[in-house]
Write a structure and sequence with these properties.
With 262 residues, the chain is an alpha/beta fold. The protein has helices spanning 56-63, 85-90, 108-114, 122-135, 137-140, 152-165, 182-197, 209-215, 233-238, 240-247; strands at residues 18-27, 30-40, 45-50, 70-75, 78-79, 93-96, 170-174, 201-206, 218-223, 226-232. The chain has two domains: 38-92 and 170-234, 3-Layer(aba) Sandwich (Rossmann fold), CATH 3.40.50.300; 104-167, no CATH class. The termini are far apart. The structure holds adenosine-5'-triphosphate.
């Protein structure tokens, strides 16, 4: 059983690793988020699912300091408002953006090395480099190849590898399975669970709701900028509204990703 730190009252629950409260984001009159609140407990996998345009990416970008917002975002008890994005990385948050965010002209090796720019522990960097290459053997075979010449799935592995190299305590993954073959998707979700077992907290945004809900301890459904359902991953997997709208196993078998829950 986990021991509470000495300065913590054992009667009080541990504070969440990440807490988002009343988050609002708008772009030129478009309200992308209308007051979203949720928590990510330490060491867990939490997933946000929702249709295209629901606001999932906006949440991750706000956490990383890339989008202006109102409301509050707290990481390890620290308010992230006005913390610039590079400092947020330094605090231990790694963001694997949709579209991967790798450097196409740099080799795989350079992409991985560059992700450690905030670190000053050469031995730890070497250990993590080996860990990434044994997690993704395909990257080892392609170390000298420019990132931009990798296949889509390999670029996704490189993006996750970069996040691992940064030794993040909180990993924000935006649609990591996008563009991957079904076999690679299976591999990727197993790797996400492995990463989580090394005490990395994960906030996962996914269109692949079925896989995401299977590995998540907590899950939230986002619809047009609002959370409309919350529960454990298992609860939402069994929820008829989620089945109908996101899993393609509802009464109509429609499974439209754009369906509304009401
Ligand atoms: P997807 O799954 O399609 O990536 P999403 O759930 O991640 O969607 P967001 O990318 O967060 O959704 O977008 C939420 C809303 O905000 C959408 O209506 C989108 O068009 C709008 N939006 C996002 N970024 C901008 C921007 N830079 N300028 C204007 N509108 C934006």
């Amino acid at each position: 059983m986990k021991q509470a730190p000495l300065d913590q009252n054992p009667m009080e629950p541990a504070p969440p690793h990440l807490e988002v409260r009343d988050l609002r984001v708008h772009f030129d009159g478009i309200h992308a988020l209308h007051g979203v609140s949720f928590q990510v407990p330490q060491g867990q996998i939490v997933t946000l699912i929702g249709a295209n345009g629901a606001g999932k990416t906006s949440i991750l970008r706000a956490i990383s300091g890339l989008t202006p917002y109102t409301g509050s975002i707290t990481f390890e008890g620290r308010d992230l408002r006005r913390v610039p994005p590079h400092r947020i990385v330094g605090l231990g948050i790694a963001h694997v953006p949709e579209g991967r965010g790798i450097f196409g002209n740099l080799t795989v090796r350079e992409n991985l090395r560059l992700a450690t720019w905030q670190r000053h522990d050469p031995e730890g960097i070497e250990t993590d480099f080996e860990r990434v290459l044994s997690t993704f053997p395909r990257l080892r075979e392609r170390l000298r190849q420019p990132g931009g010449t990798l296949s889509g799935g390999e670029q996704q592995m490189l993006a996750v590898g970069r996040a691992l190299m940064s030794r993040a305590r909180l990993l924000l993954l935006d649609e990591p399975s996008m563009g991957m073959s079904p076999r690679l998707v299976q591999e990727l979700f197993a790797i996400i669970q492995d990463i989580n077992r090394t005490h990395t907290t994960i906030l996962l945004v996914e269109q692949n709701a079925n896989q995401a809900l299977r590995i998540a301890s907590h899950a939230y459904v986002l619809e047009t900028g609002r959370i409309t359902l919350a529960g454990t991953g298992q609860e939402l997997l069994g929820d008829p509204r989620v089945k109908e709208a996101y899993l393609g196993t509802g009464a109509t078998g429609k499974g439209a990703n754009d369906a509304k829950l009401q």
